[in-house]
Design brief:
single chain, Rossmann fold, 2 domains, 6-stranded parallel beta sheet, 15 strands, 34% helix
Length: 438
């Protein structure tokens, strides 16, 4: 959690008012994801902002969604990342790539030029940049695929909510990278939970226990901003911490089961036990959070990134009439543990399906707007980080109205990032009981 607080509260947001503006159109997006296909023969010009592995994959998924989808522009902070990504996309979809040198935009502001030259924007930059880039795209009248999570702080969430409302007014599409909402087995199982097959949801357990991830090292000619941007995953201001960047998938399924209604409060614990080298920035390596809902339901959330440990990525729901599991099995059980139903339907690549949904919605003029639920789920992750960093029980209203804005004073490779190394070469790490909620 950054020690800076540079942006005032733009509007006090109560939980009640938040609920009024966060009713997701789940049924509509599920129906499109399950069966619709893109139609029409008009060309749609696609632009990719953020050319890492996920961005490259998203661009290929977008081109898979229709033969008349053409990638015409790309933007990234780093030229080498852009060129590498372009080469991989060309190799995969040679007939659908038409990116000339004049439409390769490098630097922090490249996205602004890209947006002007396309119909559809794919946002796959580090999470910090998504609120401003989503706003710029919707302001310009463009349709958007936005990777998860959608922000790293509460001001970012408030911006996304406002942008989602603007997109709805303009009848523009926002499809979220919370891809499990487009996975056939998951959507069918979750819909059964929402429809009451296990009765009232009493308890939820979400686990995302995995190993370690990539690191790109440090070169002697890099500025501090360059190092942090190259290794964005390990800095809270860029990634939101890994419980936000990765575990948001699990939290999204939990809030999905709760009808996309946010909790009233959360508390938890976390730390940095194994990943202690300064090269790993200022994020934790484990989090455990309890989310309290107004009806008494609690969601227990656990995530960890450590090597040589037992791993588990599952979703478990206990209800008044039975229970359900997702990912390890897509099944419904009665109170005695007998299987009542298991998914036996079609498969499908959820990454392709979410883009099929987006481009079908554009071509049919029936907009999808995932903006509200992607903001709720991201905010669940952010409040969890706040609780673990501070050691406090924090209400939804407190978290959503936080003024902490995790941003540098200037976007430049020569500028100082929000977090800097101390005299000992280490980055300041949030300490429960010492770090304060801003």
């Amino acid at each position: 959690m950054s020690k800076s607080s540079r942006t005032p509260v733009d509007q006090q947001t109560s939980r009640r008012n938040f609920l009024k503006t966060t009713t997701a159109a789940v049924a509509g997006s599920l129906a499109i994801a399950r069966g619709a296909h893109a139609a029409g023969d008009e060309t749609l010009k696609v632009g990719l902002i953020g050319c890492g592995g996920r961005g490259t994959g998203a661009a290929i998924n977008a081109l898979n969604a229709g033969k008349n989808n053409k990638l015409v522009a790309m933007s990234d902070a780093f030229e080498d990342r852009l060129k590498s990504s372009l080469g991989r996309i060309k190799k995969s979809k040679p007939d659908q790539v038409a990116v000339d040198d004049d439409h390769c935009f490098v630097g922090f502001d490249g996205y602004k030029k890209l947006i002007d030259s396309v119909d559809v924007v794919l946002l796959a930059t580090p999470p910090h940049f998504r609120p401003m880039q989503l706003k710029a795209a919707i302001d310009a009248g463009k349709h958007v695929f936005c990777e998860k999570p959608v922000a790293v702080d509460a001001p970012g969430i408030r911006s996304v909510l406002a942008t989602a409302e603007e997109a709805e007014k303009k009848k523009l599409n926002i499809v979220s990278g919370l891809c499990w909402r487009y996975h056939p087995a998951v959507t069918e199982t979750m819909q059964r939970i929402v429809d009451g097959e296990i009765g009232d949801v009493l308890s939820i357990q979400e686990t995302y226990l995995t190993g370690t991830l990539w690191h790109r090292g440090r070169q002697p000619d890099w500025t501090e901003m360059t190092f942090q941007m190259r290794n964005w995953y390990y800095f809270t201001w860029l990634s939101g911490d890994f419980n936000t960047e990765q575990h948001v998938h699990s939290l999204d399924k939990g809030t999905w089961a709760m009808g996309d209604e946010p909790p009233i409060a959360a508390w938890g614990l976390g730390g940095r036990q194994v990943r202690t080298d300064p090269k790993f920035g200022d994020i934790y390596d484990h989090h455990a959070v309890v989310y309290e809902y107004a009806n008494g339901t609690r969601m227990h959330s656990y995530c960890r990134q450590m090597g040589h440990c037992w791993n588990d990525v599952t979703d478990n729901f206990a209800g008044s009439k039975g229970r359900a599991t997702v990912l390890n099995k897509h099944s419904i059980y009665d109170l005695k543990g007998k299987t009542k139903w298991s998914y036996r339907g079609r498969g499908g690549n959820m990454y392709d399906l979410e883009h099929e949904a987006l481009f079908n919605a554009i071509r049919t003029g029936k907009p999808i707007n995932n903006g509200r639920y992607m903001a709720i789920s991201t905010m669940l992750a952010i409040i969890g980080r706040m609780c673990d960093y501070t050691g406090q029980r924090i209400t939804w209203d407190q978290a959503l109205n936080s003024t902490e804005h995790l941003a540098p004073n200037e976007y430049s490779f020569d500028a100082e990032p929000p977090v800097l190394q101390g005299p000992d070469g280490k980055y300041p790490i949030a300490t429960p009981g010492v770090t304060k909620l801003v």
